[in-house]
Design a protein that fits this description.
521 residues; alpha/beta; TIM Barrel; 4 domains; eight-stranded parallel beta barrel; 40% helix; 19% strand; globular; binds 3-methyl-2-oxobutanoic acid; binds zinc ion
């Protein structure tokens, strides 16, 4: 019997975070997890505990602090992975789920694993049984399922369900599937495995977006028996990303005529807030024309459309923007606003802050309030983000002066403070560059004795107006091939750039000994 409740499994913090340059620190992950709980997703995949101490701690902390959703940790079908996931998930108690995976497709069996079908079956069953020792809630993923021989996939599903898996996920790992075919595969599995029909086990789908079909494939699967969809906020993830949570949820809600009786438990009014938070925390900008959450998603520029909207909104709008959280903007704060007003606005934005955090944010707020007339919600969020960094501030910016113009060689003078520096240590340098930003970065390189290659630079106005806070995000390669993200905000874009670069230098210095392992799926 098919029930019609769709479980939303959010993997923003695991598959989403695997996107190059999107890595988040513990506090950033925790803020995202708390917001996912407010969004009312059913499952949060918090990470891959065996992969690094950072992932282990993130899953453990989320399991301890975030109430409501099931908390999940990923593991390969190997004892040390399952043990790490089981340990990290302990604080979640009965809300803990272990997600074990093993590739099943011919190409992965032959070239990646060098294992025959019967060996794969044995390892999958063993992995599920081992995970069952920690929790009843076990999910199994035959990696690259969409390119696996359907008969073998049926065999795998039957075996892992018999071993105790309560969810079997059918990943389209490389984004190869097309909706009709993928839907038919899900129907075959549903029709072949009795436990999927009785509801004893659930079919899940996990689609990547290499052909831009991740959402379409997920929806086709739902129509054919899948009852869990794995997705990420803003569709972030490996390569072209994963199915976008907001698109899946809103398609089902908006097209109830087609998705007859299907429902997700998501609080759609939290969607925009979640999107913005994930974008800020992952440093991945949302494209303007992104469905549901892009700046233009509800902007009507043509006169004919505007006229129609004014007469009846539904003429050109299939969703109510307020339904996804594009709400009325709140009155901005000003330099006259007090600490209580700032604390209240932080709570409204969903940030859970200690008194000390609020104090530090309030001090920064006052600084910015002196420079600009209004401090908008996004300005405040940018300040919070600067505060969430748990990277030791080895270097901080003390003084910056740049000269530049169309007849001048751009020159920067930079003075830095170094944590624990002895008196008299040199802390000021000047450099010339191709532009004022280049000059400032060169001076920083000289002082910090690092040599970063700027691989990506993005500047965005955090809020509106000529005095808007500029937020700079840089991705820097310090010579080891890893991209380190840095962020900085200021009403002066050169200062924001220097702060962002310095942030990446500090991250690089603190990460030097803690590179992520290569076991990433
Ligand atoms: O894409 C994939 O196959 C995965 C699995 C680990 C579920 O992310
Ligand atoms: Zn994936």
């Amino acid at each position: 019997m098919k029930h019609n409740r769709i479980t939303i499994f959010d993997t923003t913090l695991r598959d989403g975070e695997q996107c190059p340059g999107a890595s988040m620190n513990l506090r950033e992950k925790l803020e995202v997890a708390r917001q996912l709980a407010r969004l009312k997703v059913d499952v949060i995949e918090g990470g891959f505990p065996v992969i690094s101490d950072g992932d282990f701690t993130a899953v453990q902390t989320i399991a301890r602090e975030v109430k409501g959703p099931i908390i999940c940790g990923l593991a390969r079908c190997v004892p040390k992975d399952i043990e790490a996931a089981g340990e990290a998930l302990k604080p979640a108690g009965k809300r803990g789920r272990i997600h074990v995976f093993l590739a099943t497709s011919k190409i992965h069996r032959e070239f990646k694993l060098g294992k025959a079908q019967n060996e794969i079956l044995r390892l999958a069953v063993e992995g599920v049984k081992r995970a069952k020792a920690y929790t009843d809630n076990v999910e199994f993923s035959p990696e690259d399922a969409s390119r696996t021989e359907p008969e073998f996939l049926v065999e795998v599903c039957k075996a892992v369900v018999a071993a105790g898996a309560t969810t079997v996920n059918i990943p389209d790992t490389v984004g190869y599937a097309v909706p009709e075919q993928y839907g038919a595969l899900i129907k075959t599995l549903f029709d072949s495995v009795r436990e999927f029909q009785t509801g004893k086990a659930v079919i899940s789908v996990h689609c990547h977006n290499d052909l831009g079909l991740a959402v379409a494939n997920s929806l086709a699967a739902v129509r054919n028996g899948a009852r869990q969809v794995e997705c990420t906020v803003n569709g972030i993830g490996e390569r072209a990303g994963n199915a976008s949570l907001e698109e899946v949820v809103m398609a089902v809600k908006t097209r109830q005529d087609f998705f007859d009786g299907f429902a997700c438990g998501v609080n759609t009014r939290e969607i925009v807030k979640s999107s913005r938070l994930v974008s800020r925390m992952s440093s991945l900008v949302v494209q303007r024309n992104k469905a549901i959450v892009g700046e233009n998603a509800f902007a009507h520029s043509s006169g004919i459309h505007q006229d129609g909207i004014l007469k009846k909104r539904e003429t050109y709008e299939i969703m109510d923007p307020e339904d996804v959280g594009w709400g009325k903007t709140q009155l901005p704060l000003t330099k006259h606003s007090g600490r209580a007003a700032v604390a209240a606005r932080l709570r409204h934005l969903g940030f859970k802050m200690t008194d000390a955090d609020v104090g530090a944010i309030f001090a920064k707020f006052k600084e910015i309030g002196d420079k600009k007339k209004f401090v908008y919600d996004d300005d405040l969020a940018a300040i919070v983000e600067g505060q969430l960094t748990d990277v030791p501030e080895t270097w901080t910016l003390d003084y910056l002066n740049v000269t530049s113009g169309n007849q001048t060689v751009p020159t920067a003078t930079v003075r830095l403070k170094k944590a624990g520096a002895k008196a008299g240590e040199p802390n000021q340098e000047a450099a010339i560059g191709d532009g004022p930003v280049d000059a400032a970065l060169k001076a920083i390189d000289r002082l910090t004795k690092t040599r970063g290659k700027l691989m990506d630079y993005a500047l965005r106005a955090v809020s509106q107006g000529k005095d808007a806070l500029g937020e700079v995000t840089v991705k820097v390669d310090f010579g080891d091939g890893n991209l380190i993200t840095g962020k900085g905000a200021s009403t002066d874009v050169i200062e924001a750039s220097a702060r962002a670069y310095l942030n990446s230098v500090n991250r690089h210095l603190s990460d030097r000994n803690g590179v992520r392992s290569s076991a990433q799926p």
